[in-house]
């Protein structure tokens, strides 16, 4: 049943998936609302950026997999985004660094969504490559829309370890699932792995090597020519 | 029948819905083409911006609801966008303020699409929260694509009353529909409500209060830290 | 069978369509990766920009037509994007002008995708207007996402002959198909036509006339007013 895990828990594991989904939506909605607070938007802007960030990744995943869109089936996800956006609107003035908070919320949401997205793709019958892609899409696409609409530079294209951490989480889950590991364990380990990669990268300032023009290049190739 | 109102009128009300849909598509296509004229694009740019603005919101609504996309079923919507874009290309030089015109056309299209979108969601079986969201998506998403592609700041994230007016129109329709009000009346009242909220906001310069850092904050939180 | 040509060749022609599809995906993935190289991204950025550019247009086409998304059905398309992105990451330092190369790869991918997109729409039962639109969407949407994410100005809205060439290719195919011309011939001629229009435009610097304010306008209309 592809609808399992989409708000209609039928087993304890489906309940866990549903809870993770709710938590992921809530923390991503919070990152969207925090971008709105940094841009000093009104409450409708908070609600819109919160909602597109919270549900954007899962929406694209469901469209690509041909599944009913999760928040159309279960509108409470939408309500969660609005409640979170409202909470941020009225509490974001409390003095502490919103930028750091945004980064850590984002890391938690990213790790959760990467695993939930891969899980849902496998439940829908996808193979490993598509499942990993769906995990990465679920984890990153909401943030991409948030950054495009908020006119920030998309974080997934920066030299930061971001999509790489989503890849680690989704890949870890797919591998453990293929090895027959119990789902609760696979989900827990994979979320932890994705969060650790992102968290360590944040804490230690890790980056992947960027493409750099090599010596052999003629200088005029660097101009836009 | 979810296809009712999608170009196959079966009752007088379906015919009214179809006519509103056509008018909404045409006025949104005009706003897209007017942005193209402000950017001094060629006629293909007019056609592309006109089409994505005219049909973008309804396209996303249909994808999210799992319905066949309206302009794939009824290609005349696409033709309308192209005709309108062509008309604007050849008439936009007539001397008057295109910027004001764009704002009022946009207000009319927004109010129509908010109600048509909510109506179509209800016909497809959605509950009130999803219906209101679909109304807002139908009303605003075409303009979001227009603004992103035209490299303008998205109007829905500005402090203007825009998404709020779409919310008023869609919410009014959903409430009247739930109260059992006759559809023709509900559509008429809701479109009028949405247009008035947007029109008064334009005329009187209304805005919602924006989020502002409160006194208790340390100045360094305002830097990007 | 709408699935024909989607990685399950059943006739020689389907095999040709599938091969063109693969080549189009590969060249578009290369243009995405070349943008990543110009922005000096890391290898994950290469993979992401390569994949969204390679499969973005066909993904939107399949969603709009209500077909299963081609790379979810046939994940090898995704693998092709990743391989191409990796190749570009390790070879793009070879000294020659990547900008010219990008333009000519882009022209080939554009012409192929315009025809493949129109073909797939006709196989799915669409009429001529929708088939031409699907050809243009398949040909241009991946590049639009590439340019929006890479923070470049979208090439389809520039005064260049780009969407116009996609229109020429898709329109030529739809016309030849309607005239009963053999599919292999129609595809070959239409791809050649689209590539020639784009190639000549590149080589000779053709542009369409842009909209320009006419004499009758008052100067204050040019200010944003």
Explain briefly what this protein structure is.
Helix content of chain A is 69%, strand content 0%.
Description:
- Three copies of one chain form a homotrimer.
- Chain A has 225 residues and is mainly alpha-helical.
- Chain A has one domain (12-206).
- The first copy, chain A, has helices at residues 12-38, 43-65, 70-73, 76-91, 98-123, 128-149, 163-178, 183-204.
- At the A-C interface, helix 2, helix 6 and helix 7 of A face helix 2, helix 4 and helix 5 of C.
| Average pLDDT score of chain A | 82
Query: How helix-rich are the residues of chain A, as a percent range?
Result: 55-70%
Number of helices of chain A: 8
Show unreliable segments of chain A: 1-7, 215-225
Distance from first to last alpha carbon of chain A? 55 Å
Anisotropy-based shape of chain A: globular
Quaternary structure type: homotrimer
Number of domains of chain A: 1
The arrangement of helices and strands of chain A along the chain is HHHHHHHH
Chain pair with largest interface = A-B, 36 and 33 residues
Percent of sequence in beta strands of chain A: under 5%
Helix/strand structural class of chain A? mainly alpha
Output the radius of gyration of chain A.
18 Å
Count the beta strands of chain A. 0
Please describe the biggest sheet of chain A, giving its number of strands, its sense, and whether it closes into a barrel.
Answer: none
């Amino acid at each position: 049943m592809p609808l399992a895990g989409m708000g209609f828990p039928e087993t304890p594991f489906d309940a866990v998936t549903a809870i993770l989904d709710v938590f992921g939506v809530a923390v991503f909605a919070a990152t969207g609302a925090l971008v709105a607070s940094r841009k000093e938007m009104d409450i409708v802007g908070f609600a819109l950026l919160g909602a597109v960030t919270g549900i954007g990744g899962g929406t694209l995943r469901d469209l690509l997999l041909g599944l009913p869109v999760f928040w159309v089936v279960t509108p409470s996800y939408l309500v969660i985004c609005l409640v979170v956006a409202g909470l941020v609107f009225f509490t974001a003035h409390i003095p502490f660094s919103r930028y750091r908070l945004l980064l850590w919320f984002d890391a938690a949401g990213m790790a959760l969504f990467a695993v939930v997205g891969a899980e849902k793709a496998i439940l829908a019958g996808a193979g490993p490559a598509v499942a990993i892609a769906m995990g990465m899409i679920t984890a990153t696409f909401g943030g991409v829309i948030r950054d495009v609409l908020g006119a920030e530079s998309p974080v997934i294209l920066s030299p930061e370890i971001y999509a790489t951490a989503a890849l680690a989480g989704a890949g870890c889950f797919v591998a453990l699932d293929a090895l027959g590991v119990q789902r609760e364990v696979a989900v827990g380990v994979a979320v932890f792995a994705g969060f650790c990669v992102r968290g360590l990268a944040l804490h230690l300032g890790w980056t992947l090597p960027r493409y750099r023009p090599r010596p052999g290049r003629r200088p005029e190739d660097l101009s836009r020519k």
